[in-house]
Design a protein that fits this description.
mainly beta, about 0% helix, about 130 residues, seven-stranded mixed beta sheet, four-stranded antiparallel beta sheet
Length: about 130
Amino acid sequence: QLALVESGGGLVQPGGSLRLSCAASGDTLDYYAIGWFRQAPGKEREGVSCINSSDGTTHYADSVKGRFTISRDNAKNTVHLQMNNLKPEDTAVYYCAADALPLCADSSTWGSVAAYYKYWGQGTQVTVSP
């Protein structure tokens, strides 16, 4: 049974950076598509980024392109989300999710398939404020 634990959230000023980590236990993350999602108070959950298992394909929400980078650290069985030039609108709880299906394969649907991810972490709070 795969288990995911996020870390790295916190309070940062606008323009600052954070690196979120999604550490896995119970199985190897290599075999899973990984998605990062976020949910701000009063808003719907939205897809931030994902990385495919087979070919490393990545996708990003338009709002974070050029600022966020998703990557795998296979040696540590971890996926990272490097977030640079953070903005107040990035404030949210960030969740990582994993599934054996290729949920990150389609550039037009990756952000809307959160419900299909089987495994979820507990979330980590990111607050961007002066």
